[in-house]
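Need residues for this backbone.
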């Protein structure tokens, strides 16, 4: 943003301050009352040209504005008196000088608001101007000002400006206008998203793209894509076409999905789970399936003592890390059945021998599994990926320890050798919250799962609640990077894709609220639900 452009925004704020009483509404980040602690501290300017004039010009009187109504809510709104902004017949979206990379965001907003896109030209009355201001503000933050009949949205990066356009769009949907004043907004957590199991249940590209658009309006920025499991392998493979299920996404379809996600500032986080949950791959490679001492096959489990197992999985990882160009790769590592046996070493002696040969006489099968995780992390890092794994792929004690840069995706406390979340946090690990008590939507509700409700997430869950219903101590908050609401297809025919979309609608909105704004929400659940209905209906 040029200095003159910054002066325009600052001047607009000063003009509003000189003309009217300004109320500041700040929603504190760490307060237990959170949004409910909304305050309205009036400030009166020291001097006013209108008050000093013996014959002031007639002016319209406006009530002090209130914060825009959006999901998630904005974190700070500086109120002012004025008409606000409505999309009118002469309104347009323009791009500030030097901010040409915002053209996609500008064109999308103009289309959504049904106004003109005028590109890199000076703003005029009624316009919305988008501007990049590198280095000013936290990542994904933005400032949205409404003064003198214009809107200015600025931020340090494209994502922040995009989120400002989502606020404007939702406010117009909710109330027909954007209130006068200034919004200063930023996310509480850097990772916010939806996790989707397309291995057990197939979803069309159009359905996935609809979810991406829904996520973008909620300021969510990650789509986890679990595309390989016991039931199916759902993306076309050119290195191993024999593992691909008949109903799958082509690589061209995936590229379109990833391209749309990128334009909406959403990263797709792919997952090929191993060494368990590989049934679809093992149907084409039965020689690599794990067998116990009696010769019985272990469902979905790879025999990681066989060198061919690593060769196969690494070829798949190499291929698909090139298809997905985001920063993260999910390695899975959960529910390896060899470790769930009463006596793993006795049941799977070949794994025990391999562990001792590789890591020494004191090593065990969990060391071999940890080494497998570290080796797969080493495969994806040269492709620019930061590795993730489920929490039950990390073990206490042992000879081998999981690499420190592998992020823990915490989902359950029911795993083999169950560990409290505090154990991972005390180790200094970074954690993402997928608490199965609140954030797991498991089709058919097997194994005592019940469909989660938006109300329960909205009223009870926070990013600190990693396991069950109890939060971890607040001192660990900085290590909890965010969370994702997860859809799993255990009984895939239990719901149609349309029913899934409807079932996750309010839980996803509640999750977005709790990841963007810390503290207790200002709206009651009924008010929140009514606002969601109003915004969605207007769309």
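Answer:
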């Amino acid at each position: 943003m040029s200095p003159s452009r910054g002066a325009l925004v600052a001047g607009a704020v000063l003009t509003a301050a000189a003309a009217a009483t300004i109320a500041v509404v700040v929603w504190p980040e760490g307060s237990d009352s959170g949004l409910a602690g909304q305050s309205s501290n009036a400030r009166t300017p020291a001097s006013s040209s209108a008050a000093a004039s013996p014959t002031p010009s007639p002016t319209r009187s406006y009530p002090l504005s209130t914060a825009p109504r959006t999901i998630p809510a904005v974190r700070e709104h500086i109120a002012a008196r004025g008409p606000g902004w409505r999309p009118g017949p002469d309104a347009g979206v323009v791009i500030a000088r030097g901010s040409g990379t915002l053209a996609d965001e500008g064109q999308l907003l103009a289309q959504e608001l049904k106004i003109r896109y005028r590109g890199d030209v000076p703003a005029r009355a009624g316009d919305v101007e988008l501007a990049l201001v590198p280095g000013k503000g936290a990542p994904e933050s933005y400032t949205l000002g409404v003064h003198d009949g214009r809107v200015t949205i600025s931020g340090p990066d494209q994502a922040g400006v995009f989120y400002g356009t989502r606020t404007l769009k939702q406010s117009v949907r909710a109330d027909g206008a954007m209130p006068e004043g200034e919004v200063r907004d930023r996310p509480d957590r850097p990772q916010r998203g939806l996790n989707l199991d397309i291995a057990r249940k197939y979803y069309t590209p159009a359905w996935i793209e609809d979810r991406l658009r829904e996520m973008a309006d909620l300021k969510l920025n990650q789509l986890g894509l679990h595309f390989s499991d016991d039931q199916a392998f759902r993306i076309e493979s050119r290195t191993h076409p024999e593992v691909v299920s008949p109903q799958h996404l082509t690589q061209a379809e995936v590229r379109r999905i990833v391209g749309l996600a990128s334009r909406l500032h959403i990263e797709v986080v792919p997952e090929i789970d191993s060494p368990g949950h590989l049934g679809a791959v093992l149907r084409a490679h039965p020689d690599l399936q794990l067998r116990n001492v009696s010769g019985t096959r272990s469902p979905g489990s790879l025999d990681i003592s066989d060198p061919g197992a690593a060769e196969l999985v690494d070829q798949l990882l190499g291929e698909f890390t090139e298809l997905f160009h985001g920063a993260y790769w999910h390695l899975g590592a959960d529910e390896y059945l060899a470790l769930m046996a009463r006596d793993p070493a006795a049941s799977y002696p070949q794994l025990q021998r391999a562990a001792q040969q590789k890591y020494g006489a004191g090593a065990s099968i969990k060391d071999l599994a940890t080494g497998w995780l570290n080796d797969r992390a080493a495969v994806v890092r040269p492709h620019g990926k930061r590795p993730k794994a489920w929490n039950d792929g990390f073990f206490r004690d042992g000879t081998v320890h999981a690499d420190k840069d592998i992020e823990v995706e915490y989902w359950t406390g029911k795993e083999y050798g169950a560990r409290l979340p505090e154990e991972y946090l005390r180790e200094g690990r970074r954690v993402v919250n997928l608490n199965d008590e609140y954030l797991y939507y498991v089709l058919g509700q097997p194994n005592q799962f019940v469909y989660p409700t938006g109300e329960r997430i909205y009223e009870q869950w926070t990013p600190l609640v990693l396991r069950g219903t109890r939060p971890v101590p607040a001192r660990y908050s900085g290590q909890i990077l965010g969370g994702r609401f997860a859809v799993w297809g255990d009984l895939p025919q239990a719901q149609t894709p349309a029913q899934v979309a409807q079932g996750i609608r309010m839980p996803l909105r509640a999750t977005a609220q709790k990841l963007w704004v810390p503290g207790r929400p200002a709206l009651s659940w009924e008010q929140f639900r009514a606002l969601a209905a109003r915004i969605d209906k207007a769309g």
